[in-house]
Design goal:
With 282 residues, the chain is an all-alpha fold. It is built from 10 helices and no strands. The chain has 2 domains: 237 residues, no CATH class; 30 residues, no CATH class.
């Protein structure tokens, strides 16, 4: 792959990693208020340096975009897990969503970028990719703002320990995360194909429509996965309420009821017990 210059690393890499980390944290970890500003800035600086170092050496080592992206995603997971103290599910899910949003933005802006490169003059100080980067960062900022309002940070089913989850939830998480990984691989295979056809000046007009159809099918599949995940979370949360032991349920109702209501509930329970042939109480 093309080796990133220091300018590109600073002006493209730093904002992208910063927004990527913030999107992941807001989406799955939630509030950072318990951290002091000094700790927060230190962790963010370490995250950016570590991830960009891996990005730089990965681009020098691997030729394929897909392999490079997989290495970078793995580094994001490690960073979320050990530096930001998220569990494995949160780390993988945050990484998949962050990576997918970046890929979709880049794919949708490819035609605009190609036109921009033709217009950009070579004597300008910055490379066209650096000058064009704000057009990619702005949608990421809007996505970040969206996730501040709508996220999974407070989902007990996402944050509780793996051993405490039901078999159904574990299976659902494996399917969802596996689907998100496939969506990301498909997107970056698409980008890799576009980049290689541009480098070798290959005319893809004949199959261009099929490639675009593949991309939009991937978008649709991704939305279906997110919708499936939402309803699975809701279903399992409802199931969790239903699975409450009767004794705990009765105690919860009693704590929220007045003495008069409690007496009425007792009479109802006595009547039900009498109808079932239970022992009579005075």
């Amino acid at each position: 792959m093309e080796v990133m210059s220091i300018w590109r690393l600073v002006f493209i890499g730093v904002p992208e990693v910063l927004l990527g980390i913030l999107i992941g944290l807001v989406l799955c970890r939630g509030s950072l208020k318990e951290m002091s500003k000094k700790v927060l800035v230190s962790k963010m600086a370490v995250s950016i340096i570590v991830i960009l170092s891996i990005v730089y050496f990965s681009r020098q080592t691997f030729d394929g975009i897909v392999v490079h992206v997989c290495v970078t995603m793995f580094m994001y997971v490690i960073t979320f897990k050990f530096l930001w103290e998220m569990n494995v599910r949160q780390s993988i899910f945050a990484t998949c969503i962050k990576t997918y949003t970046v890929a979709v933005i880049e794919i949708l802006t490819i035609p605009l970028y190609q036109s921009f490169v033709q217009w950009w003059k070579t004597e300008y100080f910055f490379e066209p990719s650096i000058a064009f980067s704000p057009a990619i960062r702005m949608p990421q900022i809007f996505i970040l703002l969206f996730f501040i309002k709508f996220n999974f940070a407070r989902s007990e089913l996402l944050i509780q320990k793996w051993r405490n989850l039901s078999v159904y939830y574990k299976a659902a998480m494996v399917v969802i995360i596996g689907s998100l990984l496939l969506c990301n691989i498909a997107n970056f295979n698409y980008i890799d194909a576009i980049v290689k056809t541009n480098i070798h000046n290959i005319n893809i007009d004949i199959i261009g429509g099929n490639i675009q159809l593949f991309f939009w099918a991937n978008i649709w599949f991704f939305l279906m996965v997110i919708g499936l995940m939402y309803y699975i979370f809701k279903f399992l949360e409802a199931q969790k309420m239903v699975d409450v032991p009767p004794k705990n349920l009765v105690l919860s109702v009693a704590k929220e009821s007045s003495p008069e209501d409690i007496e009425r509930y007792i009479d109802i329970l006595k009547e039900i017990s009498r109808q079932k042939g239970g022992r009579q109480h005075g």
